[in-house]
Amino acid sequence: MTVLVSIDGRIVPPDQAVIPVFDQGFLYGDSVYEVLRAYGRVPFALEEHLERLARSASLLGIDVPLGPGRLREEIEKLVSRAAPGDSYIRVIVTRGEGEIDLAPEAARGPHLVVILKPFRPLAGDLATHGASVHLVASGRCPAGAVPDGSKTGNYLANLMALGRARSQGHHEAVMVTSDGRVAEGASSNIFIVRNGRVLTPGLEAGILAGITRRKVIDECRAAGIEVLETELRPADVKGADEAFLTSTLREVLPVVRVDDVLLGDGTPGTLSLRVREAYRAHVRRQVDAGSRA
């Protein structure tokens, strides 16, 4: 497996990829990040991911050490050296190192880390037969503790939720807020299908504005499929005709079971599969255009 790592613009072997232990990203999860997928040599939705990275950093008051153009070049440089096939790319910006002190101003300058490794496809049974999800009381940060819309490295609540889901045999955790609203997956957005309409939690639930989520909504509407961004409760998800997850790495993944409840006949739903194909067609168009650029 070929893994490439760039730290502050310098490509280093994975076993030499280090940042100081006094970095606030390490000490406190004080960082922002993005995950991209490269299809062949083309990083998909690169501009949208870089824009969201910059927005997250701005919300947290973290300086991104490279401008969008230079950062794009840095990512493309790694992709050009990747092994054949698709790649996973993770871009991380930490606040930097300093004294062991919670004060943001204690950090001296940010660090930029870019990791690239071969993309690992979903297991065949998931891709073919669909996923199972577990509804988990989220235990997320209180509203306003972290600016809404920021994608930060502080992922402990998501990690613990996913651990609970996996321990019970589920692929993904879907988090439920303290007031009983369905929010998002540990690393995905969730959609349900009811009476031919697609429904998904709105951004006011404090969820991340997923890039794949936005593209799926746009593709659905372009295809004449009604989409509502609305409040969902656990009973809505368990009573859905169909459901699916979206994320950069999963694309569109049908859900066939929620906790101990089968959706429909327990196989990927017709509309979910239609949405998946529409999204994949969009990806192919964008990648083909990127390859010719």
Task: Outline the fold blueprint.
Layout: E1 4-7, E2 10-12, H1 24-28, E3 31-39, E4 42-43, H2 46-60, H3 68-80, E5 87-94, E6 97-98, E7 107-108, E8 111-118, H4 124-129, E9 131-137, H5 156-167, E10 172-176, E11 182-185, E12 189-194, E13 197-200, H6 211-222, E14 227-229, H7 234-238, E15 242-247, E16 251-258, E17 261-262, H8 270-292
Parallel strand pairs: 9-10, 9-16, 13-14
Antiparallel strand pairs: 1-2, 1-8, 3-4, 3-5, 5-8, 6-7, 10-11, 12-13, 12-15, 15-16, 16-17
Description:
This protein has 293 residues and is of the alpha+beta class. Helices cover 31% and strands 28% of the residues. The protein has helices spanning 24-28, 46-60, 68-80, 124-129, 156-167, 211-222, 234-238, 270-292, and strands at 4-7, 10-12, 31-39, 42-43, 87-94, 97-98, 107-108, 111-118, 131-137, 172-176, 182-185, 189-194, 197-200, 227-229, 242-247, 251-258, 261-262. The strands form three sheets. Strands 9, 10, 11, 12, 13, 14, 15, 16 and 17 form a nine-stranded mixed β-sheet that branches. Strands 2-1-8-5-3-4 form a six-stranded antiparallel β-sheet. Strand 3 (31-39) and strand 4 form a beta hairpin. It is globular, with a radius of gyration of 19 Å. It starts with a strand and ends with a helix.
